[in-house]
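Example record used in the benchmark description.
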Amino acid sequence: MMKHNRQLLIIMFTATLLWSAEPVGRNINVDIDHQARVMAAAPVEHVVWDGNQISTIHGNHGDVVSYHITGNSGLEWPKGSGKLAVFQSGIWLASGRTRAPGGDWEDELRTAAAEYTVEFVPGSIGSADPNSGHIYQIHKKEVDAFLENDWATFQAMTIDLPITVVEGSSAFTEEIPKSLPTDDFMNWPVHDGAPWKDANDDGDYNPADGDHPDILGDVFHWYVMNDGNAATHTPLWGTSPMNVDVQTSLFGFNQAGPMGNILFVRWVIINKGSDELDSVFVSMWHDDDVGDATDDLVGCNVDLSVGYTYNDADGDNTYGVEVPAAGADFFQGPLVHSPGDTSTIFTWSKENSYHLRDFPDKKRLGMTSFAKYINGNPIFSDPASAQETYNYMNGLVGTTGEPFIDPITGQPSIFVHDGDPTTGSGWIDDVPGDRRYLMTSGPFYFAPGDTQEVVGALILAAGSNWAKSITKMLYFDNFAQGAFDANFNVCSPPSPVVEHAQLDQKVVFSFEDGSDIVEDYSCGSYTFQGYNIYQGASLNGPWTRIGTYDVIDGIKLILDLELDEDTGELLELPSQFGTDSGLRHYVEVTYDKLNSRDLINNRKYYFAITAFAYDPDAAKRVIESPINAVVVVPGQSGVGASLASQAQDTLAIEHSGSSDALFDAIVVDPYQLTGESYSLSFDVVDSVTYWFLKNSSSDVLATDMIFPATEDYYATLPFEQLPLYSITNSITDGFIVSARNSTFDPPITFSSAETISDDNAETAIAFGGISGAGNGTWAAFLGTTPLDPQPAGSPGAESLQLDIEFRFTDGGSVATYFNASISVIETIELPFEVWSIEEEKQINAAVYMAAGSKPIYEEDEDNPGSYIFTKNFFVIPVYENYNGVGMSDYYSNTNMGWMMKFDKSSTSFESGNIFRVTFVNPLFPGVDTYSIDAAGAMTTSSDELTAQIDAVNVFPNPYFGQNPEERNQLNRFVFFTNLGVGKTTIKLFTISGDLIRVLEKEINAVNSADRRAQWDLRNSFDVPVASGMYIAHLSLEDANGNSIGEKVLKLAVFMPEERLDVY
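Model output (structure tokens):
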């Protein structure tokens, strides 16, 4: 199972009050924050949303990105990199006027905000559900499984889902097998407004009736919150509650490319109070810290309703020069009264699901102001009151209420820094610092019971420098806008399910499981096109394509509109490099393309396999599944285990029957081999013959009517046989089956004709082949004549497949003779006997001469002791025991088979010659079977075990200040390699015998992702060791705790000079 680690501490409390406004310098007291939460009753949750390259901690009280858990930035990008881009982000609401029922309008400020301190609590106002406000997490693959199966099947299914896991101070999502339906699926809170499909229109949510969550994207989080608890307002700005519910959806699409770097947010805001609210504003509030918090700048693009944070030209301490730009888009703001206009909004209803709805006399607002403030700045400071908050949301300076002045025009502006920093034009931010900003939309009137729907997104992108990152982020925003415009009906190819085998200097990846779903994928006009194989420089890339397997359809190089970072323009650039190689479900990698050398055992590598789809007429012609890294460490199988077969070996097969077909069971992944026996058999279903691969329990694992073939064999097939074969794709328990010389049809001609015994190199037999009349048999030939009666029948495939030998002897044999008109029927002496090889018996024969008369041979005057044919003639094998008696007619014997032609020209023979004509024996259902022995991993012998223990080693040794896998100078380590299943205890000593560290490594599977133990070159007090010689004593146990051996190693360590602050 893959883990995505993050240094976060996620703690759940039954509380809602968050009381820790961010002080200058961010010396945040997390414990106070936690203590404050116990003042409320509803449960506060924080979970990880990491449905694509974005990984964010968010809570059920308004923060889309949350620092509340650790006091550090809550959004990591790219996922798994450990690099953080956004500190905190959430939704703000504020109203300027209030009217109670029956009262007058009053100038009263009210707020409902998720800042560093939050004013929201989980749950819906008035809800009786004790779980109201819980963060419900639904994955598209669970919904797909529900829709593709009946209820009973679905209930019995288990799928891997990314679940937020906490271990000490680390939080991560881990792929964990979950039984379906999940609790969140089963208890979907439709009563609180969660979108759902009511399959039978009864108004009651019951998945057994076909009801299910109605989600967007590949990973969908939903919860409802409210600001109705007055106590939560006191610590922040002290206003009365607005009494709003906010239904929150977070979702995204797991793709490679732009869509994989976008997180969408949808807020449905409902006035649950009795007061009318006016002059209401809604803001997307951001405190982006792109790496280092002190070097950020902000800007906005008014036309696109985009705000963003970027770095100055000096780069960033975390991201370096390729520092990303973190953007946010305001796709849909509130509706306001506008006579004569009609506005269309994206919404949801039970009757129409997600759809567009028209509102006459309404206008939809976008971003109406963009304001910034700065940590520690005395003028543009964090808002300390509701009035300062309301000023910022109106596009004014918070502390003074004065307008921001554009220094370029000298005029007031409600859009701060709306210039273009990539060109230096207009009003741009100039002095880096710790920025926050508000993207605001309003004002609007909000009556009791009214609903407003707001949709936005977070977008991250990195170019080769800060300016190109902005350009790329705005390019990505086009895709976010396109998804919104398409009602989020985004085509997203499924990811291949990848398994791997770590072998000696090679790795085998197989992606058979679920390949039918991947290859049947279509969306709109997109259809599956192929697979890409990538190698990465790290867990997060950059990635280099090292192979492509695509559909054979003439489509190779695909051009697509891509962003040219140098010009900022969209150009047609190569996007996919097809090969028309055909599809494969496995790939063997032996070469490290990034470093131009063979794979090295016990070194970590990163690979990924994606699927891509193609639509030649789409604006984006290629869409690709996400790059999901697979971490591998090639090497031998480790102590205590060995492999009976290696990749590309052919498993032992035994054949019973008469067919000439050859089947090979070729090992793809030796770790998947079960050790079972398998059978290949053949049967007729609805008049069509199929082959069946079955296991020892007679379960059908694979079947088809055409034969599988390797690429090499397929390339040698004549054109007429191509429809009978396909390049083998299906992997069964670690091996593929490939056929040769296979057919279900009787032979239509001979396979080979040759002399197999002839001591005289001066003589030879000239064979003229099979008659061209009909199918080449005697009956077919007679069918071309006017003779009557015609033969009653001809031999079946079981006879026509038999190989025939002509054995030249002194005595020869007697056959039936037919002259050209078949008016003469008598016997003839032949210089050979006719034998059926498989039956090991001599059979009768007949001779037909189209011209001339007998005899048909005489002595060869040029070669004394040899004979020659004097006539051209046909020999017809008669598939019955030889009796030396001629037939009385030409039509009654139904055992007369092929008409085989012998030419007098250049033919010379002697007694003792043997000439053989072979035919491909077809497969006969119920007769031919093939048994396969799939021996896989096995326990080693004592001699092998000794050699395996000898192979246990430490790398690098000596350690000269670095390890090729180290990423920075603070993270030093060596590996103990070739460990096996079970526990290895490593005791490390100085050369004088002092024990300085004890390590333990548990390995649970032979093909474990990392069969190495890592020592960080620190002692038990976490102090780096000094340079010198060290002794490692390894005790190895098997999976049952039994000792299997010991090993002592010497390790030389040369540490670079460094100063320690630990004494």
